[in-house]
Amino acid sequence: MDTDYSIICYRYCCVPTFGRGTIRCFHTNASAMKCLAARDFEDLLQCVIPVFKDLLLDPDNDNIILDLLFDLATWQAYAKLHLHTEDTLNFFNLATIVLGKSVCKFQRTTCAIYITMELPHEHATQGRWLAALAAKQGALAKSKGGLRPKVKKLNINTYKFHTLGDYPNTIRLRGTTDNYTMQPVSFYFY
Question: Is the dihedral of CA 32, 111, 23, 73 positive or negative?
Fold first, then answer.
């Protein structure tokens, strides 16, 4: 166990199952799980706080991460509710504001201290892609030299992040997200 990455994978493997089909066993490498269903993401999120607890040596940054993870889990719980009242939607609005502040604090403090790199399987995929490109193009792609893992930074300037604040009002207008689908109408005729 020489990296935080392997410690996280080990801790996820140590999480016991809960009930029948509630929390399932995790793969030996939680980040390399493929074809994840929504329940898999939910299981990872529900178990993330004990997995990440005391992972960092700096207790201040550790607390920032744990607060962020709690805020994410709270927001996801409100978003998943099948029945909302005006009170739950108001709490959902408040949870969205708190989540936004937590993400900004995380980006401003913790992300500024740590340098994060792409995961080993992402790096391997990039290497295979470059090897295939080199095979097609010949000497042009070979001159790039050794490939190093890319630096990855948190980008909150995305559409997905900025629409989080629209969820409570969308639920007010259209109902919970399990009431409708975004699939094309032609799907129903086949």
Answer: negative
For residue 163, how far is the Cα from the chain centroid? 16
If one counts every other C-beta atom within 10 angstroms of the C-beta of residue 138, the result is 8
Q: Which pLDDT band holds residue 109 (cuts at 50, 70, 90)?
A: very high
Identify the residue whose tokens are 């994060």: 116
pLDDT in tens, 66-80: 999 999 999 989 998
122 alpha-carbon distance from chain centroid: 15
Q: Which of 66, 8, 62 is nearest to 32 (CA)?
A: 8
> Which residue in this structure is represented by tokens 């000497």?
139
Residue written as token pair 């989540």: 99
Alpha helices in the chain (DSSP H): 4-14, 38-46, 48-52, 59-80, 86-108, 110-113, 120-137, 139-142, 159-162, 167-174
Query: Distance of CA 145 to CAs 78, 84, 125, 141, Å?
Result: 49, 56, 17, 9
Residues whose CB is less than 8 angstroms from the CB of residue 42 and which lie 6 or more positions away in sequence, other chains included: 76, 80
135-172, pLDDT tens digit by residue?
888 655 454 555 788 888 889 999 989 999 999 999 99
What is the DSSP code (8-state) at residue 77?
H
Residue 117, beta-bridge partner list: 151
The pLDDT score that the predictor gives to residue 46 is 79
In the predicted structure, residue 118 carries a pLDDT above the cut 90 = no
